[in-house]
Amino acid sequence: MFSMNSEKPLVSVYCLTYNHEKYIRDCLDGLVMQKTSFPFEVIVHDDASTDKTAEIVREYENLYPHLFKAIYQKENQKSKKVRILRSFVFPLIRGKYVAICEGDDYWTDENKLQDQISILENNLDCHFCVAGVEEVALDKTPCGVFHPPVPINQPFIPPEEFIKQAAKYYFQTSSYVMRYDDWKEYVMNPPEFRKKAK
C-alpha cells in the first residue's frame, strides 16, 4: 500500500455520504481492498449524518490515515444548497483521475481501479471509463437490476451514442473513472445539453 503523505496519488476517489450507516463499511472496505500499481487517495465527505456514518468513517480514517481524508460537516450542506463538489471536494483532489463511490455503493472487484486506469492510460482519446454494475439488497441478495441493463459489446462508445444511453441511466455512478480536468470542467462549466437536462 502506498503512503499518500509522500507520493502524489494518480487517482482521487471521492465518496459523498449521508446517513449511510447500513452501507458505509461495505463502501470503505471496497476502497481499501483495491490492488493498484499506483498510489490513490480517498476523499470522504460526510454531510452531517445523524446516524453513525461519521463515526465509522473516522474509524477507517484512523486505521488508514495514508489513504483517507475525510470532511465532517456540522450542518447539512445539501439542504443549504451548497455545491459540495465545488466547495469541499475539488480543492482536495490531487489525482490525475477521479473515481466515484458514494456511501451507499460499493466495489467488489479488487482490480477495478487498476483495470480502468490501465484502459485510460492506454487510450488517451477516452475521457472516462465505465463498467457494469449489479444492484443488490441490503442483505446482498441480487435484485435482478443491472447497469447497463444489457451488455454492451463494443469497447468504445462515441459521444453521441453515450449521451443517448446516459439519458436512460445506463451507467451507474460508482462505475465511473474520469480524467479529473475533464470532469472538473464538466461540473464547473456544464455543456448546453447538461443545462437543459431535466
CATH architecture: Alpha-Beta Complex
Overall mean confidence score, pLDDT: 88
And the CATH topology? Spore Coat Polysaccharide Biosynthesis Protein SpsA, Chain A
Low-confidence stretches: 1-5
Helix-strand string: EHEHEHEHEEEHEHH
Name of the CATH class: Alpha Beta
Radius of gyration: 17 Å
Instruction: Note the overall shape.
Output: globular
What is the helical fraction, as a range of percent? 25-40%
Strand content: 15-25%
Order of adjacent strands in the largest pleated sheet: 3-2-1-4-8-5
Query: What is the count of DSSP helices, taking H or I runs of 4+ residues?
Result: 7
CATH homologous superfamily annotation = Spore Coat Polysaccharide Biosynthesis Protein SpsA, Chain A
End-to-end separation: 42 Å
Number of domains: 1
- Based on secondary structure, the structural category is alpha/beta
Instruction: Give the biggest sheet.
Output: 6 strands, mixed
Number of strands: 8
A few lines on this structure:
The protein is α/β, with parallel strands linked by helices. It is built from seven helices and eight strands, in the order βαβαβαβαβββαβαα. The protein is globular and about 45 Å long.
Topology of helices and strands:
Layout: E1 11-17, H1 24-32, E2 40-46, H2 53-63, E3 68-72, H3 84-89, E4 97-100, H4 112-122, E5 128-129, E6 133-136, E7 142-147, H5 159-166, E8 177-179, H6 180-188, H7 192-196
